[in-house]
Design a protein that fits this description.
about 10% strand, 6-stranded mixed β-sheet, two-stranded antiparallel ribbon, 3 domains
Length: about 550
């Protein structure tokens, strides 16, 4: 193990030197806040006389003086190389040293590419992007992953910030960078790399939980493997991690969220909180079975990431309903287990059950935690018996007294305007009343909003004609409390339509509803209106009847 205190210039200044980020490492992940802190820090130090220190980088030596894998420090080195590209581009735009190309050729050879040797190689699946946008300085590369988008954004961000500075300020920054010191720790072999990375972990490095867990397991492989199997077992974890990181780049969920849901599914139920829970369970495993336990855990974790990718790309109506509702965290452990134990036909049944569960959870506003009621059911969900799962959830919710059928009916008959599910409920209702063969499940309206048929109290307190008001054109207390925000008085509408009809007389509203050729729920308002003195009006009884119809639909749709 070698410790070398070198400058950044010395770190790169060799025609043959190349740094590679192994594929089991995390792809480029710095966001705007990271970039801002980096930029402000380097600008501040370039204006002062104090030395700047870039920290430690941990390298596995592949070929002495030539090729190194970056074990720790890949985010900082990647950012540094992108920053150098931005500096060169901005200096060119400001016509610095315009009569000579030697300056730019020299810097590109040091930090970017010397002949065929590209100085920094990111994870394998981002190399074409990095080469195009950073090494070859092309801006038309089509990004396809979040890490590629970050690479492109980082270059654009630095160019924008540097362009605000004078040429001499940018040169000062470049000089400061080149003289900045870092400590390069060179290690030979996976075993020493694992030991050193675990040491770095324990010193509070800003890592994801996925990285911490990977490091912890690789270190435990070193501790518990037979001496002649250490490298092979560590390599095994590296290879599984490599496949997981490929999947991470293809999914929308954050890697640590997937890890969290996985551990809820398989480690400690909804009581799971931190990686210490995993470590505690691992600590109870027999010594001679620890290696096998780690490998099995990592394989199962890889399956979870693969299934999350499959879930996100699945075209399924009930999965779409879940997404429209907004999938709460407690749903994902069931999805993770479902993909493990169920075939495609039963997966759809699972989504139906979960959508009912999710709708009820979002409809009922209570401090009671639904996860606590579901924990035993989640733990026992280890087979393909969806009928039993449905029955177990139904019985538990009815037993709880919060999300049972009676509670659902009471909620549907109460104040619905501020309920999280109101838009979703009315969309599902709309689809149910559409003509046979016509579905608007995946249709949207511009500036979607909820309209009060009988309008909310206007600022001047005066309501127009056609509503259930007293002799002073005011709502009574009962109407305000029980009818104004009632389900029967709410209708799905575009924001522009809502603004246009506002507090108009009911007859004008009704005319505008009837002109809507898309939403049948607007057209059917007339069916609930009552005739009074030869005109159609909107009364409490109208709201009651419409509420009852929509509530009946909801109770049937979201029933176990």
């Amino acid at each position: 193990m070698d410790f070398k205190k070198i400058t950044i210039l010395e770190c790169f200044d060799s025609s043959q030197k190349q740094y590679e980020i192994p594929i089991y490492q995390r792809a480029y992940s710095w966001d705007r806040d990271n970039l801002r802190v980096f930029f402000e820090d380097i600008v501040e130090h370039s204006n002062g006389s104090s030395n700047y220190f870039y920290g430690n980088i941990l390298l596995e030596r592949i070929e002495q003086g030539k090729k190194y894998e970056i074990i720790d420090g890949q985010q900082r080195l990647t950012t540094l190389v992108i920053f150098i590209r931005a500096i060169l581009n901005v200096l060119k735009s400001k016509n610095y040293n315009a009569d000579s190309s030697d300056f730019y050729e020299e810097k590109e050879k040091i930090y970017l590419k010397n002949g065929n040797n590209i100085k920094l190689r990111p994870v394998e699946y981002d190399r074409a992007c990095f080469d195009g946008i950073i090494i070859d300085d092309k801006d038309d590369f089509k990004t396809s992953t979040p890490s590629q988008e970050r690479i492109k954004y980082t270059k654009e961000y630095f160019i924008k910030q540097l362009a605000k500075l004078e040429t001499n300020e940018i040169l000062n920054i470049l000089n400061k960078i080149e003289s900045t010191e870092l400590i390069a720790i060179e290690i030979v072999g996976k075993k020493d790399s694992v030991l050193m990375f675990e040491l770095q972990n324990n010193r509070g490095k800003d890592l994801t939980n996925m990285e911490r867990l990977k490091s912890y397991f690789m270190y435990q492989m070193y501790v518990y493997s037979d001496e002649n199997e250490v490298n092979a077992n560590i390599e095994n974890i590296s290879n599984i991690s490599k496949e997981i990181y490929k999947l991470i780049n293809d999914i929308k969920l954050e890697e640590d969220s997937v890890l969290f849901y996985h551990n809820q599914a398989y480690i400690n139920g909804y009581a799971y909180r931190t990686l210490d829970d995993v470590k505690n369970i691992f600590g109870k495993v027999d010594k001679d079975k620890k290696v096998e336990w780690i490998i099995e855990y990592m394989r199962k974790l890889h399956t979870t990431f693969s299934n999350i990718k499959q879930f996100e790309h699945l075209d399924n109506t009930h999965k779409y309903y879940l997404e429209c509702l907004g999938i709460s965290a407690f749903i994902y452990p069931f999805i993770i287990k479902g993909f493990r134990f169920l075939d495609s036909s039963k997966i759809d049944e699972l989504f139906q059950v979960l959508e009912i569960l999710l709708f009820r959870a979002k409809l009922i506003n209570t401090r009671a935690k639904i996860q606590e009621r579901l924990n035993a059911i989640l733990s026992n969900f280890n087979n393909d018996d969806i009928a039993k799962l449905r029955a177990d959830i139904k019985n538990k919710l009815n037993e709880s007294g919060y999300w049972d059928d009676d509670s659902i009916e009471i909620a549907l008959c109460g104040d619905m305007y501020n309920k999280e599910v109101i838009n979703y409920l009315l969309w599902r209702y709309e689809n149910a009343i559409q003509s046979k063969g016509y579905s608007i499940d995946r249709f949207s309206i511009e500036g979607e909003s909820i309209e009060h048929i009988s309008p909310q109290q206007p600022d001047n307190g005066v309501l127009e004609n056609g509503y259930d008001v007293d002799e002073n054109n005011q709502y009574d207390d009962e109407f305000i409390k029980e009818y104004l925000n009632c389900l029967g008085n709410l209708v799905l509408i575009s924001k522009s339509h809502n603004s246009a009809i506002g507090n108009k007389p009911f007859s004008e509203k009704l005319e505008s509803y009837n002109k809507n050729l898309l939403l049948k729920q607007q057209a059917e308002i007339k069916d609930f209106a009552k005739e009074e003195n030869g005109k159609l009006v909107w009364k409490k009884v109208s709201i009651d009847e419409r509420r009852d119809k929509i509530a009946e639909f909801a109770l049937k749709t979201w029933s176990f």
